[in-house]
Write a structure and sequence with these properties.
Elements: E1 2-3, H1 16-28, H2 38-48, E2 61-69, E3 72-80, E4 89-95, H3 109-118, E5 122-126, H4 138-152, H5 154-157, E6 159-169, H6 171-183, E7 193-196, H7 208-211, H8 220-230, E8 256-263, H9 267-279, E9 284-293, H10 305-320
Parallel strand pairs: 1-9, 4-5, 4-6, 6-7, 7-8, 8-9
Antiparallel strand pairs: 2-3, 3-5
Helix pairs in contact: 3-10, 4-6
Length: about 325
């Protein structure tokens, strides 16, 4: 099954809320990440994301926990939604975006709170290792360890192991797609993958890289900088764990929700991944926001589209899992 909004040509206008964010960035004179060091990029990102996030929505609880990862401890932020059951709750592993180089659970806190409340679920958001200090596949290995923890410690967390989904945005969407493919053959595979403008092809040759190369937030130059910090050599580009669009088969992947921003260098590879999933018999819900830019789900302060996209993902997740009751998404 595939559902989608009508295709809109790239010449459509940028939404006013997205244009406002672009104007704010231009007025701030933010330095492009690729002109500095990764540490400078992280400081710049951490200074900027509070101006995009809206008011933090209250949840039942937020806690932190550290688990043993494959090469050291991994810190998790755990959210319990207001209406989440005390036991056998659905759960979501949320993997933050940031080009594998920047970002952390705090930068995506708003999104995790929305998911926790709308889906009445538990959300686990890990601080996975970042590049270039920790190159591919370090982030994947950390995320895989967190998924294993959610399954093995489910009783302590109050999680129903039969109802665990994976979500992420941008580079986090990349990690979510890869982890979904890795875990598809496990005893209790993920029940859904919820992807916001995922990076699925590190070759960066899609036409949207030319249509939106500059002037729409994430630029082609910045994305190349992110990728080149993440990989160890150009041969990694063809590894399906970096470019899941290049996987030999997507058969058996969990049902997928994909949100595509119309004015985004990653738009075409998101569309291509949705088609590959459909061709391989995977249930897909594809939603397009034609006037939006990359990262719009992290821009809740500046308009309703961010929350609407998370709500659409929750509705899709509920549709994939008949065990859900009493929908809370709006």
């Amino acid at each position: 099954m595939t559902t989608s909004s009508p295709t809109t040509p790239a010449v459509s206008l940028v939404d006013p809320e997205a244009r406002h964010v672009l104007d704010l960035s231009r007025e701030a004179g933010a330095r492009p990440f690729e002109t500095g060091t990764p540490e400078e990029a992280r400081r710049s990102y951490e200074d900027g994301f509070p101006t995009l996030q809206g008011e933090r929505e209250p949840v039942a609880s937020v806690s932190e926990r550290t688990i043993a990862g494959p090469d050291g401890p991994v810190t998790l932020r755990i959210y319990r939604g207001r209406d989440a059951p005390g036991t056998d709750a659905p759960a979501l592993l949320y993997l933050h975006g940031g080009g594998w180089v920047v970002g952390n659970p705090e930068s995506h806190d708003e999104i995790c709170r929305w998911f926790a409340n709308m889906a009445a679920c538990i959300v686990v958001s890990p601080a996975y290792r970042l590049a270039p200090e920790h190159k591919f596949p370090a982030a994947i290995e950390d995320c895989r360890a967190v998924l294993f923890f959610m399954q093995s410690d489910a009783g302590d967390l109050g999680i129903d192991t039969r109802r665990v989904a994976i979500a992420g945005d941008s580079a986090g969407g990349n990690l979510a797609t890869v982890l979904s493919l890795i875990a598809r053959g496990s005893e209790k595979p993920p029940t859904a993958q919820l992807l916001f403008y995922p990076n699925t092809d590190a070759s960066q040759t899609a036409d949207s890289y030319h249509r939106f190369a500059d002037g729409f937030g994430l630029t082609a130059a910045t994305m190349a900088w992110f990728r080149d910090h993440y990989i160890s050599s150009s041969s990694d580009i063809d590894d399906w764990r970096v470019s899941p669009l290049k996987a030999a088969s997507l058969i058996g992947a969990p049902p997928a929700f994909l949100a595509i921003a119309g004015h985004d260098i990653l738009a075409d590879e998101g569309e291509a991944y949705a088609k590959r999933l459909q061709d391989d018999g995977v249930t897909v819900v594809l939603r397009r926001w034609p006037g939006q830019i990359h990262g719009f789900v992290s821009m809740g302060r500046h308009g309703p589209a961010a929350r609407q996209a998370v709500g659409a993902a929750v509705v899709a997740w509920r549709g994939f899992d008949p065990a859900f009751e009493n929908p809370q998404a709006d």
